[in-house]
Amino acid sequence: MVRPRKISDFKPTFTNLAQTSHYQLIFGGLPLGVRQHLNIRGVDYRFMTETTGLLCSSAVIPGSTLADTKVIGNFQGVIENMTHARIYPDITLEFYVDKEYKVLKFFEHYIEFVAGGSREDQSKADYYHQMEYPDDYKMYYAKLLKFDRDYDYNNEVQYNFYGMYPYQISNIPIRYETSQILKMSVNFHIDRYSSGKYSSYDKFRGRHNNKIEILADPANIESQSNVKQSEDVDASIKITGSNGELSGETKRLLDYGKELNVQYTYPYP
Question: Which of 24, 30, 61, 68 could potentially form a cystine with 145 if both were Cys, beta carbons 3.0 to 4.6 Å apart?
Answer without folding.
Answer: 24
